[in-house]
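Render this sequence as a predicted structure.
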Amino acid sequence: MKESIDLIPGGGVTSPRGFLAGATSAGIKTNNSGRLDLGILCSEVSCTAAALFSTNKVKAAPVILSQQKLRGNRAQAVVINSGCANSNTGKQGLADAQMMAELTARHVNVATDDVQVSSTGVIGTYLPMERILNGIEKIVLSAEGGHELAQAIMTTDTVPKEVAVKAGDFIIGGMAKGSGMIHPDLATMLCFLTTDADVDADFLKKSLKEAVDISFNMLSVDGDNSTNDTVLIMANGKAGGEKVVAGSRRAGVFREALQKACLYLTREIARDGEGATKLIEVTVCGAANDVEARMAARTIVSSSLVKAAVHGSDPNWGRVVAAAGRSGVELITDKLELEIGGIGVVSGGEPVPFEKDKVVKHMDGNEVLMKLDLKIGNGKATAWGCDLSEEYVTINSDYTT
């Protein structure tokens, strides 16, 4: 009998057994007096860990440091700040990131090498280390502290993003932040996942990559890619039971549960894109293969013209097929079929009569669904994004002022 995988209402990153978290207002964010901006996530015991980091050639100091620390596939805690990315800060930035790890290790009584460091915020500014030192000392960890931590990692996000899923006797929890500078290949974001399952290191790495490929790597808000992207998972084994390894009884359910958690957070990030009013979901099927389906879906959801049309509830389907046409995938114009909100607007590459009012009504909603069938193979993929509004320009025109 297959184990059910269910969302836990109100769950989050500390839902799995043995994980604690806390946050404080350290005064790192400018013009945001009193807002939480510094926090710690910690396991009661050492964890098997895996992570994926920014593909940007310009990497922030905490990313460089955390990559080095994770070579042994172990971690027990992560310290996170918002308001300052600690990127393009040279040797001082690396020293500051290391100091954050040391201060955290002392505060929660774990080895410094087992502390991951993550930052998000403005690039090219130094961390206010005295404030961070004082802030870390004030953080109180608890099993309920994950909700505060999910708020502390926010920058231009308007809501915290949290999830927890239960699969048999283990739980996967998670939190994420991301609103702007988000584009495929590890969309600009931070995501921290936890599980009380006992998971083999190699299987954990593979499962994380598979989950990220179909979720966060299919997410785009504005076509920009950050210096700080991080997706980290820690598995502490507190649920007991047999180890999850490739080919084991629980391997499939663990992989499915992790993907469900990542997909949930992906949609929440897209829904909360900077200035966004609508979630866009683009499914491409009938492609030559899954790789080409991914390319086409990501190109469509990233198109500024498509995003602007969605914002205005304009069923200008030509922008969708044009984006697919420049994506570099194999397609035959005379075979294309396109639906918006389940209503056919293109067949055989040509327009078909449709009730415009019904399509507009669908596009007026909170979620706009598009399906493009290339009709040449079995490849399929889905990508997520959001509309492009005037508010996006406003947010990013005075981000540092």
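Summary. The radius of gyration is 22 Å. The first strand starts at residue 5 and ends at 7.
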